[in-house]
């Protein structure tokens, strides 16, 4: 009797379950078909072990030309130790947002360190942590800009900046990539606005080129616009002790908002912005991706702090990275894919269409090289590419093998 009742109570939901299986998901299937038809279908690849110069995917050992772990810090014993100690002392989770009871001593220590790191020339500089670069960009821009304001955005800005612009209610004006004359013209076309903000990647994530920051700053100063720079790919890579492109160009005191990430060269996770104090106070009060989310757990915060200590102690990793960049670029130049003077660890090999790019990626894989094929919407249509990144921990042999495989790709292309 008792058992019958249990069975019966479990039996009852069945009609609803059946209903669920009969529901029509064909609109999703159609959408996936369309993505496939365009050659833009994406799926996940599982990586075993640490994101180092060599990785294992589907049981195969590959040389990794896809990671943004540029300095090879993501599995460094010192970062591991810092993360472990922080976890032992303060737990695995912070338990609340910063404004409730998730504001830990560690968060404030890292912010003080970042303000020193990036804000040397900024009067009254403060830093604010965000949970990721994506959170930072979709939080900062809408917090500062709204109806009646105008944002000037580089045509090749990172998706998170684009989304930040969309989420604000400001007008967004896209200017030609890395083109300060076009920017100046667009600014002249919008002489009246409550606030005007120029946003740009410093090192562009898919091309590795630099934004013309000096000219951008001069244009901004003439027009009274603010500047926000995303240093995701320059933090740890460029500038004194890895302070970024803004520092490298000596512009630190002339840029209102310097945003950077902790998850790429710094080998941890999270992001930050350094700005004069009033900006930070407004962000604490208005940035929704800061206010309405649980704060970063202790481990990545402690790991990032340790990474900053290591950058201060020695420039060796940064130097090794740049030596690898030079070597790899000179090899690429021989293939016609190099840059005039590469100063970032990102190398685009532009192949054009989706099919060719994914085919080249497969060929590289067979040669033991892991490089990502990049397609729209990450890059504009017709500019599909292999995106290769160089790390400080690549050996000469790794780099040579990568170039060798690319030489083969080049041969295939000229044969076709
Ligand atoms: C990676 C990246 C981001 C996002 O940072 P996450 O911490 O990975 O969310 C933002 N901007 C640029 C330019 C990036 O390359």
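Q: What amino acid sequence fits the structure above?
A:
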């Amino acid at each position: 009797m008792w058992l019958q009742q249990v069975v019966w109570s479990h039996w009852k939901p069945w009609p609803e379950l059946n209903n669920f299986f009969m529901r029509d998901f064909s609109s999703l299937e159609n959408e996936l078909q369309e993505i496939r038809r365009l050659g833009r279908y994406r799926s996940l690849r599982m990586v075993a072990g640490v994101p180092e110069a060599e990785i294992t995917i589907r049981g195969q050992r590959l040389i990794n030309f896809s990671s943004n772990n540029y300095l090879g810090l993501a599995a460094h014993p010192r970062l591991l130790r810092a993360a472990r100690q922080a976890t032992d002392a303060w737990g695995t989770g912070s338990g609340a947002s910063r404004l409730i009871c998730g504001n830990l001593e560690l968060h404030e220590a890292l912010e003080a360190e970042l303000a020193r790191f990036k804000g040397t020339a900024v009067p009254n500089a403060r830093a604010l942590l965000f949970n990721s670069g994506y959170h930072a960009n979709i939080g900062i821009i809408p917090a500062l800009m709204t109806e009646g304001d105008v944002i000037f955005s580089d045509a090749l800005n990172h998706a998170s900046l684009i989304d930040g612009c969309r989420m604000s209610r400001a007008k967004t004006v896209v200017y030609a990539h890395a083109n300060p004359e076009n920017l100046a013209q667009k600014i002249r076309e919008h002489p009246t606005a409550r606030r005007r903000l120029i946003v740009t990647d410093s090192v562009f994530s898919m091309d590795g080129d630099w934004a013309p920051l000096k000219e951008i700053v001069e244009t901004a100063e003439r027009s009274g616009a603010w500047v926000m720079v995303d240093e995701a790919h320059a933090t740890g890579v460029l500038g004194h002790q890895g302070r970024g492109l803004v520092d490298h160009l000596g512009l630190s005191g002339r840029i209102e908002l310097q945003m950077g990430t902790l998850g790429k060269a710094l080998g941890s996770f999270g992001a930050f912005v350094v700005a004069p104090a009033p900006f930070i106070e407004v962000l604490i009060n208005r940035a929704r991706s800061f206010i309405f989310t649980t704060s970063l757990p202790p481990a990545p915060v402690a790991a990032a702090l340790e990474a900053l200590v290591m950058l201060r102690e020695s420039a060796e990793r940064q130097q090794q990275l740049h030596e690898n960049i030079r070597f790899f670029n000179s090899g690429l130049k021989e293939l016609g894919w190099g840059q005039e003077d590469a100063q970032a660890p990102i190398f685009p090999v532009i192949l054009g269409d989706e099919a060719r790019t994914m085919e080249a990626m497969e060929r590289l894989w067979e040669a033991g090289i892991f490089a990502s094929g990049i397609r729209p919407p990450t890059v504009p249509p017709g500019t599909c590419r292999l995106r290769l990144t160089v790390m400080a921990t690549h050996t000469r042999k790794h780099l040579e093998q990568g170039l060798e495989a690319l030489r083969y790709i080049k041969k295939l292309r000229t044969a076709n």
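Q: And what stands out in the fold?
A: Residues 396-415 form the longest helix (20 residues).
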